[in-house]
Design a protein that fits this description.
It contains 10 helices and 4 strands, in the order H-H-H-H-H-H-E-E-H-H-E-H-E-H. It has 414 residues and is mainly alpha-helical. The protein folds into 2 domains: 260 residues, no CATH class; 65 residues, no CATH class. The strands form 2 sheets. The protein has a two-stranded antiparallel sheet with strand order 1-2. Strands 3-4 form a two-stranded antiparallel sheet. The protein is elongated, with a radius of gyration of 47 Å. It starts with a helix and ends with a helix.
Length: 414
Amino acid sequence: MGTMVGHVAPGFGFLVIGLWHLFNHVRLRSVRPASYASLPWFPAGAGKLRHLELHLIALGSLASISMELVIGPEKHQPFDDDGSIPSNHLHNFEHAAISLALLVYAVLGVALDRLRAPLRDELTMLLAAAAFAQQLLMFHLHSADHMGVEGQYHRLLQTVIAVSLATALLAVARPRSFLISFVRSASIAFQGVWFVVMGFMLWTPGLISKGCFMNLEEGHRVVRCHTTEALDRAKSLVNLQFSWFMTAFVVFCVLFYLLVTRAYPEEPRYLPVVKEEGGSHDEEEEEMDLESQKLMESASFARMGKGLIRAMELESSVATSDSPQSRPASPCDSPQPRPASPCDSPSRALPRATTISLHTLPRRDIELPRDVDRRRTETSTIPRPLPRASLTRCDETRFSKLKWSLVGSSGLLK
């Protein structure tokens, strides 16, 4: 990591992962704000692409470890002849330890997801917090000399890593907080930005501050300054760079948030009524149809209510006229014992709530015109009314009682 490539390559990785998280968090919050929950990583697709993010982190970590311990050293191994770690390779082991923490996070994250372990999101977030903690510890207790310009860059980087660590721990306790996830994703992306800035500003001779130069020390180049005044000036310029880049990145994050929320509006909680394209004229016609339908329904309810009222009035008037006080005594109503009559025979007795079907009455055929279909004339009959003269006084009384009992029962059913 003590070269331009060693800073720009991991910085580009942090920037991509941070922007990927920022995009997904904003999209999820915009589409489903009520059910939003923070996630430690996001699937890139279905099937084999699901763990693409974690696979890329694992591959990048392995590449970084290889560069620090195998490819970077002159002997392609970081140990001395007696098996000890030389002082000029201590920073290589420190950088490899940071990459190892990220590798553990990625591998265990894939394992927890494939095993469907309970609380896998919370445990994965704790693994990310552990990786940030180890990164912060290594940069704070770095074995390299961080008293000069390079040290100022690393001190400012530690503040960003501390924000990532704090928000990762807060996300475990409050997974539904969008602002915590937003700040964590932005801090990860800004880590990448600052790594890239460090790579170019510390290892590009034309970008070194006035009064400073590059010096080869313990196998890697370090920026040194001729005077204390030049060193203080270089550190002040580093602080200004950090402030300017942070301001620009804050503006970028807000604009990015607005663009994503506009591109992914909130999904409706209920399915809308599908309407055909027809402009405002069709919508007005539909509203008029709905209003007319409501008026028709209200009119039909009004007519039904009037009909019920009339039926109730008619029932009450008939019941009053058929009461024993308002009609003359009948032989059927006489309480005195009398001889049996045909009215009292079981075959002529009618139940109180029995309905009379017109199809049981005598029917006679009606002769229709010849041009009518014969198939219909064979079954075209109408009921013949029962002769009034054939009914006795008792029959009339029983039919009257049966009729109004049926009317009363039908009123109760309604």
